[in-house]
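I would like you to help me understand the sequence and structure tokens below and explain how sequence relates to structure.
___
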Amino acid sequence: MGAKGLEHYLDNSATTAVSAAAADKAYQIMTTVYGNPSSLHSKGMEAEHELTAARKAVASQLKVSADEVFFTSGGTEANNTALFGAAYATARTRRKIIISSVEHSSVLEAAKRLEDEGFTVERITPQSDGTIHPEDVAAAVDGSTALVSVMLVNNETGAVMPVGDIFAAVKAANPQTLCHTDAVQAFGKLPVRARALDADIISVSGHKVHAPKGVGALYVKKGVRLVPRQYGGEQEKRFRPGTENLPAIAAFGVACGEFDIEGNRERVQRLNAYAREQLLQIDGVALNSPANALPYVLNFSAGRVRSETMLHFLEERDVFVSSGSACAKGKPSHVLSALGLSRDRADSALRVSFSKYNTAADIDALCEGIAAGLRVLAHR
């Protein structure tokens, strides 16, 4: 068992620890740069300067213009804004939405609501490798298609979707179709470049990249029209009115400045390989993440022990993992079901997700806990 007080946090796809620099920036904004960015006096201008700096930091990572980036409260709001905004903007002439069947709930539920409102929604199932194939999406595109939304990295398995190829195929089939990607799990871990992806709209979030919760951003390509979901003041060019959450936004900007995508990926790739090797030595463990998944996410099934039971057993040993998407709160995984996994295997699935702060000691504690859990729990 881990030493008292020594945590082995392996649930970074749910949320990450805020970096010291990002936390310091948030505190600075709350205590010294506390003006409203919309105020015309010097305190407001000081705050506006911080807002602009953060916008540029996010835009720099996406390789887009700062005026194409709008701040939101997180990935869910960004995804909702993308789907509803695009659907309503083109509703008179195009009413078909295409998504993958393994999207985050914020995309799935938004699409379901649009379907209830009379839009046509087509859901593309992944192939056996866990990814959405371009030809499957392109075959569904027609003249009535308003929007295609495919995530860049799956939040449960780490499967990397060929979004650039998918969107190129979509544009070839119908150049007017808008293309959106939920890049929340990819941002900061892969290079996310709007032009390379041929994306019109991109969602990202702060608390997955060592910034605070409650902040995200939406890239909207110049010339793309979305109908706003909120109405009020002049903030964010009236696209997302309301006083900006500047402490979180400024911290998000700092976190973006700390990205070391290649360096961290090499470290995490080694950790992932070590975890796979150690887990497969435990009788009853099967890996669910594809071999070419993003190394930050590793999904596996642990014998016939239900995932929630194993999760709490590990928690007692100061090892923290997930039984799937945190937003699902323990409900059966629609992602693993879409991949054709048996009910027993899906019910015992756990998701380990790494950050730049993890070490091999975290994996050792995890594997010791899984092995002990299978000995103790399998016969209850």
